[in-house]
Amino acid sequence: MAIIERSITTTEAFSVATPSTSLGALKRPVSSTGWKSWLFTVDHKKLGIMYSAAALFFFIVGGLEAVLIRLQLAAPNGKVLNADLYNQMFTMHATTMVFLFVMPMAAGLANYFIPLQIGARDVAFPRMNAFSFWAFLFGGIFLNLAWFLGGAADGGWFMYAPNSGPIFSPSHGIDFWALGLQITGIASLVGAVNLITTVLNMRAPGMSLMRMPIFTWMQLVVQFLLLFAVPVITVALFLLSFQRNFGATFFDVAAGADPLLWQHLFWIFGHPEVYILILPSFGIISEVLPVFSRKPLFGYPFVVFSGAAIGFVGWGVWAHHMFASGLGPVSVAVFSISTMAIAVPTGVKIVNWTMTIWGGKLQFTVAMKFAVGLIVLFTIGGLSGVTHSIAPSDTQQTDTYYIVAHFHYVLFGGAIFGLFSGFYYWWPKVFGKLLNEKLGTWNFWLMLIGMNMTFGPMHILGLQGQPRRMYQWTEARAGEGFFNLGFWNTFASIGSLVLTIGVLLFLINIVITARNGKVAPLDPWDARSLEWMTTNPPKEHNFDSIPTVSHLDEFFHRKYEEDANGQMVKVKSAEQVMKELEDNADAHIHMPSPSYWPIVIAAGLPVIAFGVIYSIPIAIFGGVIVLFGSYGWAIEPSTAPDDDFDPPVTTKDVVHVG
Fold first, then answer.
1. Which of 592, 589, 588 is nearest to 639 (CA)?
2. Contact 607, 625 (CB under 8 A)
3. What is the pLDDT of residue 250?
4. How many domains does the chain have?
5. Which of 9, 239, 281, 373 is the most exposed place for a label (fewest CB within 10 A)?
6. Alpha carbons 438 and 366: distance in angstroms, whole number
7. pLDDT tens digit string along 596-651?
8. Nearest by Cα to 21 from 658, 640, 649, 648
9. Least confident of 181-185, 244-248, 260-264, 471-475
10. Are 289 and 349 in contact (CB under 8 A)?
């Protein structure tokens, strides 16, 4: 028996463990480099890119809706939108930004980077991962089709009863809203189960929970929040759909029901939702700050446990959204205390980030600027949020622009600035090119200035009593001097245009980088975590050999060692670390095969939803599609035929021949 060692293509390596099959239409699709390789992919990286691209598209849609809102309010007696269209616009703006941008963008980053950060080759359930993406995309498209089919939802993103009932909103807009969010909720639940399983079961050897990167930790907390929060809003949406379409009376006072039931169900989901939106960005900047401060993250265990504490305590603060509803003094006191309490773990994180920066050798890349911007803006939003723990103050502010100012400082200054930090930090990892830093700096400053110009004045407008959801204001009510509503409304509207230009520069940066961008070196930032311990972009199988983890910040410790004086000294380049992995490449690398069925099942869901609104036989047809897809999924061959793979990478194998 002779042993011949040679370098072979990944195609050959896969074929060792992939028996051929011939089941006609039920066999897996052929993987290629064309559009089919994206349409039927189960690769976590491609799905992460598609999640992020779709979310970015919805970000543009939501941004245009916001600009129309501000143009309407730029001058007294605005005529840009009528009252009905204005109601649709602010409802869909909030819905789009929350459910179709921030959540799926964070999901896209989680899909792409969690397997890389924990040293895995893919997620635990690749086909479920693909289904999650397609369900989100079809749900988002379905939700927005209402614009073209009689008008969009008009009851606010909170959709309080009885305003969300058929009497006050007779069009189908709210039906599209409720059913569309149920579809995207399915996507979130499936994704949460998948990522939790991945993190708990697929970490590289030696990677204990307390050696995981903070981004993975925060995403793990988020997935548990989704796992328990999404069913609550799903129940509420089912009740609303049955009330609107089948004559149920769950929120009908005349039938003896209580409309506050909706508020409780919505906000039991809605406040954990705030942390579902913000914790991924906390994780991102916890990766960015140490890299560009040239220091390890200060107080890693405190950052981990404070994130978990935020997730836990976040379940006990929902009724501070309901202080004006007459809950009673005991309930108000309890939820006031819990609202104050949740500021503590959040403050711990801010201290940790500040101490990470303190004394570091700072490099103010664009990613670092957005990270520092998050700390400042989120702190402002957090301080204004603490005022809502005081029930009399909250009762005065709850329906004013002060609330709009608060949650935009938290969610735009916090969540979105964190996502932009991640864009600039991880772009070379995903696409192999560096985003232009000069354009990025303009992008940052225009977004920072525009954000403060837009939402800063809303504190003044709110304290002066300007109501939310008011489609016009009149000169007679504008006031005088510094507190003139007209001046600050116009100022805020100009700020929204500055903010829009900042976002536009980011889109221009993407186009320029794609065409003429600088090719990124293997380790452009001298990074610390495992996702950088592979090529840019990563190979289809992520790692030639699964790394064994011995430290927190494993990649950093493979490059640096402590000298006699206790100083960290670089002893290896990233290229040398990579070569060690390649030299010890795994003999057999099995990757999941592409599949038709996730997209088939996901396509059946909006068909069911259309049927609920228009005709039950259509819903039955959609159910048949889902059942057919589920059957195909169940009997699908476990692996693809031998010739299905042709990725442009090589790996080392040992072939035994006789």
1. 592
2. yes
3. 93
4. 1
5. 9
6. 9
7. 999 999 999 999 999 999 999 999 999 999 999 999 999 987 665 554 444 444 44
8. 640
9. 471-475
10. no
Full-prediction pTM beyond 0.90?
yes
For the stretch 350-370, pLDDT in tens is 999 999 999 999 999 999 999
* Alpha helices (runs of H) in 437-573, residue ranges in sequence order: 437-463, 485-516, 554-559
The pLDDT of residue 582 = 86
By the 8 A CB rule, do 186 and 135 touch? yes
CA distances from 390 to 171, 459, 520, 604 (A): 38, 17, 50, 47
Residue 583 lies in a domain: no
State phi, psi for 232 to the nearest 5 degrees. Answer: -65, -50
**DSSP secondary structure string for all residues of 343-377:** HHHHHHHHHHHHHHHTT------HHHHHHHHHHHH
User: Measuring CA to CA, which residue among 542, 538, 602 is closest to residue 40?
Assistant: 602
- Let me know: does 624 contact 605? Beta carbons within 8 Å: no
Q: Is residue 431 part of a domain?
A: yes
Longest alpha-carbon distance in the chain: 96
Calculate the alpha carbon distances from 274 to 98, 263, 317 in Å. 9, 16, 11
Mean pLDDT score, 510-516: 95
- The CATH number of residue 164's host domain is 1.20.210.10
CB contact at 8 A, 172 and 88:
no
> What per-residue confidence (pLDDT) applies to 588?
82
Of 361, 354, 371, 399, the closest CA to residue 215 belongs to 371
Between the alpha carbon of residue 470 and those of residues 81, 388, 457, 541, the distances in Å are 12, 21, 16, 53
Return d(Cα 216, Cα 117) in angstroms, integer: 7
Say if 601 falls within a structural domain: no
Nearest partner of 83 among 472, 653, 596, judged by Cα: 472
Distance of CA 85 to the CA centre of its chain: 28
CA angle 483, 498, 147 (to 5 degrees): 95
69 in a structural domain: yes
281-319 residues labelled b (16+ CB within 10 A) or e (exposed): bbbbbbbbbbbbbebebbbbebbbebbbbbbbbbebbbb
For residue 546, the SS3 value is coil
- Among candidates 272, 219, 231, 226, which has minimal Cα distance to 111? 219
Percent of the chain with pLDDT over 70: 91
Q: Among candidates 45, 1, 89, 182, which has minimal Cα distance to 591? A: 45
Identity of the residue numbered 657:
V
Strand partners, 518: 434
Considering only CA atoms, which of 609, 494, 438, 595 is closest in space to residue 23? Answer: 595
Buried b (16+ CB within 10 A) or exposed e, 11-40: bebbbeebeebeeeeebbbbbeeeeebeeb
Confidence of residue 19 (pLDDT cuts 50, 70, 90): very low
pLDDT over 50 at 452, yes or no? yes
State how far the Cα of 231 lies from the Cα of 555, in Å rounded to an integer: 38
pLDDT at 645: 43
Instruction: Please enumerate in sequence order all residues whose Cβ is within 8 A of that of 421, keeping only pairs 6 or more positions apart, or say none.
Output: 281, 284, 285, 288, 367, 368, 370, 371, 374
Q: What is the pLDDT of residue 477?
A: 62
Structure tokens given for 517: 């961008």
CA distance 225 to 492: 34
**pLDDT score at 30:** 61
What mean pLDDT comes out for the span 33-61?
A: 94
**Can you give the residue range of the structural domain that contains 426?**
43-520
**Can you state the angle between helices 126-145 and 103-117, rounded to 10 degrees?**
170
Mean pLDDT of all residues belonging to the chain: 90
